[in-house]
Amino acid sequence: MTTPLLTATGITKDYGATPALRGVDVRVTEGEIVAVTGPSGCGKSTLLHCLSGILRADRGSVIFRDQDIGSWSEAARSRLRRTEFGVLFQFGQMVPELTAAENVGLPLLLAGSGRREARQAALDWLDRFGVADVADQMPGAMSGGQQQRCAVARAMVTRPRVLFADEPTGALDQLNGEQVMQAIVRTVREEGTSVVLVTHEAPVAAYADREIVLRDGAVDPTGLGVAAP
Amino acid sequence: MSTAHVLLGLLAGGPRHGYDLKRAHDERLPQAKPLAYGQVYATLGRLERDGFVEPSAHEQDGGPERTAYTLTHSGRDRLAQWLTEIEPPAPYVTSTLFAKVVVALLAADADRARDYLAAQRAAHMARLRELTAVKSAPGATVGDVVAADYAIGHLDADLRWLQTTLARVADLQKEVTA
Amino acid sequence: MRPATLFRLSTAGTRTDTLRTVLTGTSAALAGTVMLAAVTVAAVQGGEPLEQPDGTAWLAPGAEHYTSPLLREPGLRPGVIFGLLLLTLPVLALAGQCIRLGAPARDRRLAAIRLAGATPGQAVLIAVAETIVASILGSAAGLGIYLGLRRILHEPGPGGSLRLPTDVFPDPVPLVAALLAVPVLAGLIGLIMMRGVAVTPLGVIRRQRGRGPRPWPGLAIAVGILLFNVPVWLSDRMVLSGYVFGALMLAGAALVMVGVVVGTGWISYTAGWLLHRFGRGPVTLLAGRRMMADPWNGSRTLGALLGATVIGGAAMGYHALFVTQGRAEDRFSVLIGMPPDPEHAAFYVNATRLVLIAVGAGVAVSAAGMLVALAESVVSRRRTYAALTAAGTPGRTLAGTLLWQTLAPLVPALGLAVVSGLVLVRSLYHEVTVGGGTTETCTDPAADPDTCARTVQTDPVVTLPVPVPWEQLMLLCGGTVLTMLVVAGIGMLVLRGSTDLEEIRAV
Ligand SMILES: Nc1ncnc2c1ncn2[C@@H]1O[C@H](COP(=O)(O)OP(=O)(O)OP(=O)(O)O)[C@@H](O)[C@H]1O
Ligand SMILES: [Mg+2]
User: Fold this and answer.
1) Contact flag A78-C280 (C-beta cutoff 8 Å)
2) Which of A12, A53, A187, C13 has the most Cβ atoms closer than 10 angstroms to its Cβ?
3) How many domains in chain B?
4) Which residues of B touch A226 (CB under 8 A)?
5) Start and end of every ABC3 transporter permease C-terminal domain (chain C) (predicted)?
6) Model ipTM?
7) What pLDDT, on the 0 to 100 scale, is given for residue C77?
């Protein structure tokens, strides 16, 4: 069961004169968790954005299910992100004026579900992440850990094939971070979702099946992520 | 770590045979290095000599395997004292990892040291994944999780040290070979 | 805190702060210029009938050289002053509302100042001081503009006739009052606006009241309309000076405006609740929740606009009144066999048309304020927008949300504003009556006028209802909504910039 689900080849991305990625290859198979690590500024987030179709790479291809999503329009990639992909950031992705349940149900509403359906699904997912009790609270009234769990629920509510997470525990203390990671891993294993997990913390990367280390915008085969002086 | 004190602690609940003690030790301290029988009896011998344990009254005869031990009064005091004692925080910096890097620089060169560090990092990561799998497994007990957490914390510290040392290998070499 | 410190802290800032300061200053300059024009008109003397000892009446000298009867006739001048002052109200509202433009940078600065040990009062003072300083600068600029305009517009015609009172200078007391009124009022409005804003060391919190806003401001509108009627009612029973008359009406109009602006909070909340409750898709959910979360946003950003449209509604009421008056007089002339005097009616109609042009300018100015406010609100929420985009929310949805949350409170509030303005006038006059006077003449023209037999001749009566100026109302509302659509469109461009994933990095 090692069908490649997402294959990126030769991803190159510059920000003006700053090269952020210089020819990165990544393969993510069905149900696999891949960690992307490396020192700050090495291009982890940029890689994640290219893989998830948020950014378009300057060169190289991103193939998802035999289709080069790099050539798709913004609207098509947008649709892909809300159906087949889930995205998760460090913090601040909840809409502050919506309750937890409304936030989690939002992707379903966007996909055309009815209010009631969306709410029911949202409650189920909040329950799976142990935060059903905050369903009717606004994000401002929740702890960072609760917010992040809601964010995971929102990313998973459409049952995506790939979850892209950028430092999902970066703003949490160790125990909360661990609980969030446990919840993510348990759920994606049940759902068979693949994960691309960007982190700079070894214990978080250890949840992955495999680790890709970046250094200065390229994969570092030594896994050290530090330049030889 | 003091095996003797762990055994005293295990005996605090009542008399036990040497075999029992080994089983209890391995169960309560999962992921620790398992105790050898020989070590159990040797340690019990020393504890008996110092008057901290004594054979249970009923089963005086028979070989050491057949003897159940019980905690004496001074054994109890010793245990209590141990539990209140503060462990000196890292009194000596002794680590094979650290020693190896220095020796590699002395005996070979920076590349050698760097190769070692890279390989060590890979091994640490592999072990970290193993331990994470142990504690994330569906049937993991709290004991498993606590034990894994302990090791993960230390491996993480090692990894951070590895990472920063890698960046300092060249400078260290200058200092070592000066 | 020394004044120098206060000045330094309240003027420190980034580009957006500069923009806000410029906007505050500009509106203060505008209001200042208009107020100076008002006090100039107040300085004009002359035209009152003076009883001469020989029984004839002369007109007092001083105003006869103005071409416009608005300046020549003493009975009309208070009306001009009243109209000018009325126009400054929305502009003042704009100056005041600038203080709440939610510039994130300024909020962070205020929080940092608190963290450095400032008391909550000092932090608010710093925020308000910025408005006051900007208004003082604006007032000074207004004075400059006023003096410049006097020069440019001073064009004596043949025989020394003047179109504008560029030959009189305001008395010093009203002059200083006009210059200080803007900073003082803007500062006061600013203080009121900062109520409910807690500047904590950890950030600026716009306090939400537990329950949504209530519809009480409706009462203020009703009281304002009553107050507007009081001088007319009183003048039937006693002699009122033109200034008391004007002041009472001004107070009534101001009260109506405040009621409309504050009432927008309730409108916004209720509209949001309805959208949230009965809407189906994500757009109505997002927009409705946003309106409920911050119902005062509408009051803050639309204040000046609504003020201008209240005046617009009132001006339309007067316009309709004068047009009807003209028609009635024409008809009366026909009935009594005199040629109609087209000049007379046209004069008033033109005067109200001027006001309407000014209202248009007011709408444009407040649209600028609205644009800045909208842009600020988008920018301050850019992280959320960027995260939503990353999660695959189509730009269409976000744009739709922006459109809803702009228009849903605007349209009903606009209706309320225009109708209140119109009712203000219609409560006074809803029909026009001309004629009906009686003349007694001697049946025999040759007889002694004191003792002759008389015939009483009653003039015909022409009564016309003042029509509701539907077309113009539609035009005003349509124009304003269109302006706001343009504003929302520009806001969407800002939105597009703010959904850039870079914003995810911004904290
Ligand atoms: N918008 C931008 N403009 C210019 N340079 C950028 C921009 N975004 C990223 N970069 C640069 O690209 C490189 C890679 O950035 P990226 O955010 O992908 O790193 P990262 O590995 O995620 O870092 P961190 O661990 O700190 O999040 C960095 O050198 C960064 O300075
Ligand atoms: Mg990053």
Assistant:
1) no
2) A53
3) 2
4) 163, 166-167
5) 86-195, 358-493
6) 0.80
7) 80
